[in-house]
Amino acid sequence: MTSTRIVFGVYVVVSVAVMLTYIAIGAAGR
Amino acid sequence: MSRLPPWLRDNSLSLAFGVLFLVTVGFQSIAGWFVQREEASQHGEQGVSYLHYVTSSEFGQAVLENWQSEYLQFFLFILLTIWLMQLGSPESDDLDAPGMESDEQQQVGAYAKPDSPAWARASGWRRDLYSWSLLTFMGAFFVLAWLGQSLTGWTQYNDEQALHDQPSVSWLDFVLSSTFWEQTLQNWQSEFLAVGTFAIVAVFLRQRGSPES
User: Fold this and answer.
1) Alpha helix positions (H), chain B
2) If you average pLDDT over every residue of chain B, what do you get?
3) Strand, coil or helix: B156
4) What pTM was estimated for this model as a whole?
5) Inter-chain contact A26–B151, Cβ cutoff 8 Å?
6) Which end of chain A is less crowded, N or C, counting CB atoms within 10 A of the terminal residue's CB?
């Protein structure tokens, strides 16, 4: 289960980081 | 498969799709960068660096307009399959079991198993949140991705306006524009057709070995 939690965490963290990054880029007009 | 290390075998589906995602988004960024450089040279300008391109609204918009529709697809599929049914589909509830089902059927609260998550055994808001966590997750990701699409699309739209000596528009004006909705609906229509096709075709066709059949 530990490896499954890690895969879950990577999916969530990477996806959220990508979305927040482009939200910031778009809002900043870049 | 049995010769794989346990961590790899146990997560092979998620990891395979994760690798496919990284490879395809990598090639998408390279192809998009080439297009950007081509267009720049047609206007007698120099293209931007690869790093500049992948951190631009142009690339962000191209990525997120597809993400939002995928999360919307899962959100709606999970939501609608609570109540709606397709006779004979492996993705559908039985005809006599639509709706939220009892705690016993869902194995929560007093009916939770010893190895169930703590919040499945809990009462009140924690059990409610756990019971709705998958739909909430997909809904939140849809909103984030759609917001990202709108903001990056807005910046890209205003860049083009400036290029043609046109006035820039507000974010709200962009969200109400046909440009934004054309970008949005072209993704939604394909998801809805694909899900509808899957729901009905899986009734009659089979794939040996797949739990989706």
Assistant:
1) 6-10, 12-42, 50-54, 57-83, 103-106, 118-121, 125-131, 133-163, 171-175, 178-204
2) 94
3) helix
4) 0.93
5) yes
6) N
**Residue B156 corresponds to which tokens in the numbers above?**
């890209």
Vertex B96: Cα angle to B92 and B98 (nearest 5):
55
| Interface mutation target, options B11, B157, B175, chain A, most CBs of A under 10 Å | B11
- Residue whose token pair is 């397709």: B86
Q: What is the pLDDT of residues B194-208, one digit of tens each?
A: 999 999 999 999 999
- Helix, strand and coil percent figures for chain A, each rounded to 5: 85, 0, 15
Closest partner CB to A27 (pick from B14, B141, B151):
B151
Could you count the other beta carbons within 10 Å of the beta carbon of residue A2?
7
B103-117 burial, b for 16+ CB within 10 Å, e for fewer? eeeeebbeebeeeee
Residues of B in contact with A7 (CB under 8 A): 11, 14-15, 18
Q: Which of B10, B144, B152 sits opposite A25 (nearest CB)?
A: B152
Place of tokens 């949140």: B129
The residue whose two tokens read 């070995």 is B209
- Report d(CA A24, CA A29) in Å as an integer: 9
Closest partner residue to A7 (CB to CB) among B6, B11, B56 is B11
* Top-confidence residue, B91 or B21: B21
Q: How is residue B127 written in tokens?
A: 């059990």
Cβ-defined contacts of B73-79 (< 8 Å, 24+): B73/B191, B73/B192, B73/B194, B73/B195, B74/B138, B75/B135, B75/B138, B75/B139, B75/B142, B76/B195, B77/B195, B78/B134, B78/B135, B78/B138, B79/B135
